[in-house]
User: What shape does this take?
Amino acid sequence: FRDKMSRRIEDLITLKVDNISFRTVPDDLDVLFGKYGRIGDIYIPKDTRTGETRGFAFVRYYKKEDAEDALDEIDGRKFDGRELKVQFARNRKTERQEFDS
Assistant: This one.
């Protein structure tokens, strides 16, 4: 999305954002999360059959402190009529592969 080539995705700090609307696009999340620090990547998985988003996203920061600030401020906040649930992603190495395959 933003600075994809400047750093490996595995090195970024990843937040999982649940309960996004199906209308949400990466630019929407960039505006919402970008105020807390520099974002390296935003990924919204899509259903391979329908092409529709799956209702969650990954936002990757360069700095852990920025990710922590975003989590503290955005978790539980309403966005596009839905209450977002934000947490640190559990398995950073496989999250993109499992949704792209």
